[in-house]
Here is the input.
Amino acid sequence: MKKIIFFILGMGLAIGCSKNRHLPKEKYYPFNYTAHYSFTNDTLKIVVKNPLNCPLRISISAPDKSLLDLVAKFGTLTLKEKSDTIIKYYLNTQKEIILKFDSKFGDLNKEIIKEKFSLPFPKNRSYKIIQGYNGSHSHNTVFSRYAIDFSLKINDTVCSAADGYVVGVIKDYEFGGTTLDWLDYSNYITIYHPKSGLFTEYAHLNKNGSFVKVGDTVSKGQPIGLSGMTGYTTVPHLHFNVLVPDRKGGLESIAIEFEEGYKGTELTENTIVKE
Here is the structure.
């Protein structure tokens, strides 16, 4: 019997920070799950477990091109919150089986319900918009085009914009830089909002600036972390993004409105907003 166990780490994000320094030697990831597979007596067995409080899509691939038909039969597995799945498949081969796994948040078949979000900082605070929708600096991809950058300073408090579950946390990066190679080295928190099916991201947090961990339940307005300057950015700020599952990149940025009366389309550079 040949058995291989992969400990697969979750999706990386991007967005950034201040001084140009050497890139971190270690790469961190916001969550992890385990995928096991074994091949014995002509039977391939795959076990995948989702430990998160949100749906998770798992795609399976194989470097051996002769196995393309095999992995095509599996397609993408969509696991519900905190669930697992087992697949058994008859396979007549003498080759060594090597499989790879990739993960994406969300269920493409779940109905998305629009909701208004609270501003992601404490009440009676006011901040300037540094970059709004479709900003040329970094809000120009499907993942980030409707993100909003608020001028929070280092160690300013970040709050959850709605009730939900923490499904991703990176907290160990210390620095950032002004070049795009820093894109994947930001500290951030990802929260899933089950009533709407949406995800919110809070990025550029300070080192060890997360008050929460994966699996925590959070309430709207609850302090969840401290703003900072990690990743790809030129100034301290909070990068706030609301996301919906999509078929290509995993998550897609969407336009939103805030309970305080602000529309995302109106939050252009230098606009002042108050909680």
